[in-house]
Amino acid sequence: MPVPLFDTATPxxxxxxxxxxxxxxxxxxxxxxxxPEVSAFEAEFAEYVGAAHAIGVANGTDxxxxxxxxxxxxxxxxxxxxxxxxxxxxxxxxxxxxxxxFCDIDPETFCVTAxxxxxVLTPRTKAVIAVHLFGNVAPVAEIEALGxxxxxxxxxxxxxxxxxxxPGALGTAATFSFYPSKNLGAFGDAGAITTSDAxxxxxxxxxxxxxxxxxxxxxxxxxNSRLDELQxxxxxxxxxxxxxxxxxxxxxxxxxxxxxxxELCSLPRATDGSDPAWHLYVxxxxxxxxxxxxxxxxxxxxxxxxxxxxxxxxAMLVDVALPGTDEAARTNxxxxxxPVLSEAQAGEVVAAxxxxxxA
Length: 359
Ligand SMILES: *Cc1c(COP(=O)(O)O)cnc(C)c1O
Hints:
Helix content is 36%, strand content 12%. It has helices at 9-12, 16-29, 36-49, 60-70, 88-91, 114-118, 140-144, 198-208, 229-238, 242-258, 288-297, 323-331, 343-357, and strands at 53-57, 78-82, 99-103, 125-131, 150-153, 173-177, 191-195, 281-284, 332-335. The protein is α/β, with parallel strands linked by helices. It folds into two domains: 9-240, 3-Layer(aba) Sandwich (Aspartate Aminotransferase, domain 2); 242-358, Alpha-Beta Complex (Aspartate Aminotransferase, domain 1), CATH 3.90.1150. The structure holds pyridoxal-5'-phosphate.
């Protein structure tokens, strides 16, 4: 049986009627921008992550740019960011006028560490973007202990838990993407910023609406970047199920961990004290490319992520030595995972890997 990399349809199937009535509710209301659905979702999402404020924006990339700017990042500043992440983590720094400084990751967790961040700090460092990559939880408290504010890029980590709380409530601010395939997905682009700092939240609200609080006076240059009422209504139907879906992802990861997989390749290691809702379950093998070809031929959809890490991308090219990044980029392979991946499906994936790498 083919096994897909993601399965977004099965978990949503039982919610179809509720989703349709949420969409109808918005159509009937005639309010499409910054109305009651967005306000309600913001309150519900803030409560879920354990932050005082959530502010809906158009997508996870804008969320990063707006949060950095609200944190006071601007021209002449440096922002530390891992190269091994989705390209947007670094790209979003550029519109603030600051420059991206790439740091390394621990290839066993795929996350930045206090050590890899410390290695690139300078007097110009204004913030660190800690990416909770693949749903693992970066050590935010250890990084903030270095004396630099952390913006969490939690795009892949909705539903995860860290030692001191959930992603979204660990740093100075955090950003989320609700791109359809993320752990909590809208039916289009959507994102949010969370923070427990009231004045930071106020600046974010201003920046998402053209730099204005009263829609009459424009105190600064901002963005047109809002979460739609329709997307907010759709997210509100799904949010009460996120925890159960996250548990399904944890169960799927446990199926892989309980199998013989660890004897064949390197499994991802949860950071200390964290309980990730794995967005992607990413193994490492020196034979990753061969494995990808063989598994795809078997109908098992696997995918290599960030083979060309951001510091090697044409638009961002910098000459820095990031050995952990290069290792992860060369050897990683994401296996199928979803809230509904069954033990039998995980077994099928492991058997196929064993047929290639075993004996
Ligand atoms: C998806 C993602 C983003 C960007 O989110 P969009 O909503 O697609 O703009 C940023 N960072 C990471 C780590 C992501 O996975």
